[in-house]
Hints:
Blueprint (H helix, E strand, L loop, with lengths): L4 H7 L9 H17 L6 E2 L7 E2 L12 H5 L5 E2 L2 E2 L7
Amino acid sequence: MNIDIRHIAKLARLRIEDDQLEKFESEMQNIVNMVEKLPDIDDEMTLDENNPMKLREDVICEEKLTRQELMQNAPKVKAGCLVVPKTVE
C-alpha cells in the first residue's frame, strides 16, 4: 500500500519538511501493518480465558430530559445557552 504523506499532511493542515517525509511514511506504514494484524472481535473477547470480557449491549434511553433540566447543572447559562470561556480572539 502506498501512503501519500504529503496528501495526508495537506488534509490535516500540517507542514512536513521534505527530509522528514520518508520517516513519516515508514511510521505510517508500520501503523497500518499493525492494525491489519489485529484480530477480529467477536461478542466475547477471550484475552484471558479465565475472565472473558463480554461487550455490553447498547440500550436506547427512552427517557428524554428537557432543556431546562439539562441546564440545571451548567455553571453559567444565558438566554437558554451555555456560557463558556472565550477561546478565539
